[in-house]
Amino acid sequence: MSSAAASAPTQTPRFAILVAGGSGTRMGADRPKQFLELRGEPVLLHTLRRFSEAALGVQECIVVLPAAQFETWQQLCTLHHIKLPHTVVAGGESRWASVRNGLAHLNAQPAGIIAVHDGVRPLTPLSVIEATYAAAAVHGAAIAAVTPKDSVRGLSKEGSYALDRSRLRLVQTPQCFELGLLRRAYQLPELSTFTDDASVVEDLHPIHIVPGDYRNLKITTPEDLLLAEALLG
Ligand SMILES: Nc1ccn([C@@H]2O[C@H](COP(=O)(O)OP(=O)(O)OP(=O)(O)O)[C@@H](O)[C@H]2O)c(=O)n1
Ligand SMILES: C[C@](O)(CO)[C@H](O)COP(=O)(O)O
């Protein structure tokens, strides 16, 4: 080994789980929203492409899909000439179960930083992904989030009351963690109703917040797809 190679800095391995195991009920389309076309390509392909950027150095990207949709994804990969390396894993009944299945695939990995990202967030800037991985390497747990732009009110029996929006954040993904921490958190089945990873981890470890991006839309209802088309244009 040359002396240069011996002294090269070693980055903690990075992994990613792209959860796309849902059925897209709120979208009400003829297929799960991760397969809908955005600028001529499946939503999930846009997302996968972002995590495949060489600059991020992600060692393994796991795509979690409904088992019944494996063939659809394979056909889409062939149709769109998708050569991006990734591992397909079957999802579960809930987002929590899908993340847990993705994590189980990494059981042999001793350490690293793992990003959990919604397969239906196709517009996440690379800078947000990088900043979230980097913050998790320092703090153990980091998520992307933005401040609400509108005034926010809480509901009460009597009516409603003002909330201080500067103390609120709208949670996005990616959500990045030390691998061992996320594993421990996902061993607790009593947390299985949570729909984001920070909520699953927070009793074990504080969650650091990284500035997200207003373009980092989650495709949930039909107007989100229109917005995403416009933003990509
Ligand atoms: N059993 C599930 C449910 C959700 N997800 C994924 O978690 C992300 C965020 O969930 P959401 O937007 O709620 O997706 P759906 O469950 O598909 O939508 P809906 O709630 O409208 O049915 C999506 O990428 C979705 O595919 C998953 O992997 N497995
Ligand atoms: C993880 C998430 O994207 C954060 O906003 C969100 O919780 C996903 O699930 P939901 O079912 O749309 O709440």
From TrEMBL:
Pathway: Isoprenoid biosynthesis; isopentenyl diphosphate biosynthesis via DXP pathway; isopentenyl diphosphate from 1-deoxy-D-xylulose 5-phosphate: step 2/6. The record marks 165, 218 as: Positions MEP for the nucleophilic attack. Its EC number is 2.7.7.60. The keyword Nucleotidyltransferase applies. GO terms for molecular function: 2-C-methyl-D-erythritol 4-phosphate cytidylyltransferase activity. InterPro entries: IspD, IspD/TarI, IspD/TarI_cytidylyltransf_bact, Nucleotide-diphossugar_trans. GO terms for biological process: isopentenyl diphosphate biosynthetic process, methylerythritol 4-phosphate pathway. The record marks 26, 33 as: Transition state stabilizer. Transmembrane segments: none annotated. Pfam families: IspD. It is an enzyme of class 2 (transferase). Keywords: Isoprene biosynthesis, Nucleotidyltransferase, Transferase. The keyword Nucleotidyltransferase applies. It catalyses: 2-C-methyl-D-erythritol 4-phosphate + CTP + H(+) = 4-CDP-2-C-methyl-D-erythritol + diphosphate. Catalyzes the formation of 4-diphosphocytidyl-2-C-methyl-D-erythritol from CTP and 2-C-methyl-D-erythritol 4-phosphate (MEP). PANTHER family: 2-C-METHYL-D-ERYTHRITOL 4-PHOSPHATE CYTIDYLYLTRANSFERASE, CHLOROPLASTIC. Belongs to the IspD/TarI cytidylyltransferase family. IspD subfamily. NCBIfam families: ispD (TIGR00453), PRK00155.2-3 (NF001186). This is 2-C-methyl-D-erythritol 4-phosphate cytidylyltransferase.
